């Protein structure tokens, strides 16, 4: 698996309450309906949020009962084994604002919680995972709470967001959850990991510790995330620009990004600008 592009978070949503490769899930219409339901539900939180670069988006990856793939192909930074399962995936370039990545963690936690507490919300129960170009950044945040045997070479498929909490899967350590030699512990396969999540097993102290770190990091969300990105100032804008921002507030992020990272051509344009007519 290739690394994510720099300053980009990737995420996947898996169904855990049905057969993971049944024909119903392989049906593109069913998958698209699931995506639409999730996007419609998350819009209540994302419509007022100003993303630094890119926003939350989901793509459909489908597999028929025969293992044939339908819909969008997965990028090379998604694990190859996930290509065998129908699921939703997306990626968000957050640039210099790492808070966007943590807002995604919070958002995915809420999606998995809603899928569990209200089964009719999406028609299935969901589990999610998220990573960026540094790897499992949730593990990095909670590094002091992890077992000694958990290392980058055996951490594959060991962290999921499910029922609104972070879950660390210790299955495969000998004995589970103990500080054993690193060489005796391998990463979990994706199907195996999802079966553990589905069974409700793996309630261990490491999950509780990691989840406490995540909850502390996300304390006050989503309000704190929105307040963190706000800055007030008075400026004069051309009427057309003011109308554009009124209709599309998120455009201010793209405008700010373009101004901050302006090149030679951008400087030439700025020198030729006259005072706007307000």
Summary, kept brief:
The protein has helices at residues 23-26, 28-46, 99-117, 137-141, 190-199, 205-217, 223-228, 239-247, 251-260, 264-271, and strands spanning 8-15, 59-63, 69-71, 87-93, 126-132, 159-162, 165-168. It is α+β, with helices and mostly antiparallel strands and 278 residues long. The radius of gyration is 21 Å and the shape is globular.
Backbone structural class: alpha+beta
Distance between the termini: 52 Å
Helix residue percentage: 25-40%
Shape summary: globular
Biggest pleated-sheet summary: 7 strands, antiparallel
Mean pLDDT equals 84
Order of SSEs: EHHEEEHEHEEHHHHHH
- Total helical segments: 10
Structural account:
A 7-stranded antiparallel beta sheet has the order 3-2-4-1-5-6-7. Helix content is about 35%, strand content about 15%. The chain is globular and about 65 Å long. It has 10 helices and 7 strands. It is of the alpha+beta class.
């Amino acid at each position: 698996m290739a690394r994510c592009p720099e300053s980009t978070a990737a995420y996947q949503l898996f169904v855990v309450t049905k057969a993971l490769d049944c024909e119903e899930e392989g049906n593109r219409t069913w998958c698209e309906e699931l995506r639409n339901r999730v996007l419609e539900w998350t819009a209540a939180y994302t419509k007022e949020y100003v993303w630094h670069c890119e926003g939350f988006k989901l793509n459909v990856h489908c597999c028929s009962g025969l293992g044939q793939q339908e819909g969008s192909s997965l990028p090379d930074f998604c694990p190859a084994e996930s290509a065998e399962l129908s699921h939703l995936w997306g990626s968000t370039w957050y640039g210099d604002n790492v808070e966007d990545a943590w807002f995604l963690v919070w958002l995915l936690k809420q999606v998995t919680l809603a899928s569990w507490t209200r089964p009719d919300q999406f028609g299935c129960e969901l589990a999610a995972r998220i990573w960026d170009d540094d790897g499992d950044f949730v593990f990095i945040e909670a590094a002091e709470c992890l077992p000694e045997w958990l290392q980058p070479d055996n951490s594959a498929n060991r962290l999921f967001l499910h029922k609104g909490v972070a879950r660390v899967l210790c299955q495969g350590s000998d004995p589970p959850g103990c500080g054993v030699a690193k060489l005796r512990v391998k990463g979990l396969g994706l199907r195996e990991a999802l079966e553990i999540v589905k069974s409700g097993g793996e309630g261990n102290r490491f999950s509780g510790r990691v989840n406490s770190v995540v909850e502390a990091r996300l304390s006050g969300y989503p309000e704190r995330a929105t307040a963190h990105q706000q800055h007030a100032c008075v400026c004069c804008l051309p009427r057309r620009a003011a109308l554009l921002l009124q209709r599309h507030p998120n455009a201010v992020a793209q405008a700010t990004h373009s101004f901050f990272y302006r090149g030679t051509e951008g400087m030439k344009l700025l020198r030729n600008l006259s005072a706007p007519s307000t």
